[in-house]
Amino acid sequence: MLLELAAEPNILRIDWVKFTFGAIALAVIYFFVVRKSVPKVMKVLDERHDAIEGGIERAKKAEAEAEEIRQQYREKLEESHREYAQELEKAKEQRAAIIAEAREEAQVEAQRIIDSAKAQIEADRQQAFVQLRGEIGNLSTELASRIVGETLSDSAAQTRVVDRFLEELGQDESAKQAEVR
Fold first, then answer.
1. Which of 4, 78, 95, 117 has the smallest number of CB atoms closer than 10 Å to its CB?
2. Residue 58 and residue 60: Cα distance in Å, rounded?
3. Distances (CA, A) of 160 to 109, 129, 138, 140
4. How many Cα atoms within 13 Å fall on the side-chain side of residue 80?
5. Pairwise CA distance, residues 90 & 173, whole Å
6. Based on C-alpha coordinates, what's the Rg of the chain?
7. Alpha-carbon distance 25 to 32, whole Å?
8. Model confidence over 85-143: pLDDT tens digits?
């Protein structure tokens, strides 16, 4: 067995041809990897790094823009609230003005109706006074004719008798009112 082992080549011994060929192959592979592949990998890594950093920057910019838009929205919302409050105040003022105007118109209309009613009452009173005066005149003329025994056909005489009779009635009425007081 030992002999057989002695006949076999030593596995720990270095074969310089294979070693040299392997070293050259390793150097060629190393050259291609370092010169060609590493720059491409580094380029890809740099691009990826830039994309990540750019994404972060874009995210920060987007966040800043979103915050700016949110702030603008808040300002517009506050402005809308202020405008709403102003419009509400204007509406209240207009409502108060309309109510005041309606009250004033109602008072004017009520005063007009009262004045019209007073004028109508005064006209009715005057008409009643004229009518009553005519009836009193006729009655007093008839009464005077019966008392005196002669007919008062003259209208001027009738007017004088009626006026004198009404004056006496007016004096009697004022005397009675003075007694009541």
1. 4
2. 5
3. 45, 18, 12, 11
4. 6
5. 64
6. 65
7. 11
8. 999 999 999 999 999 999 999 999 999 999 999 999 999 989 988 888 778 777 777 77
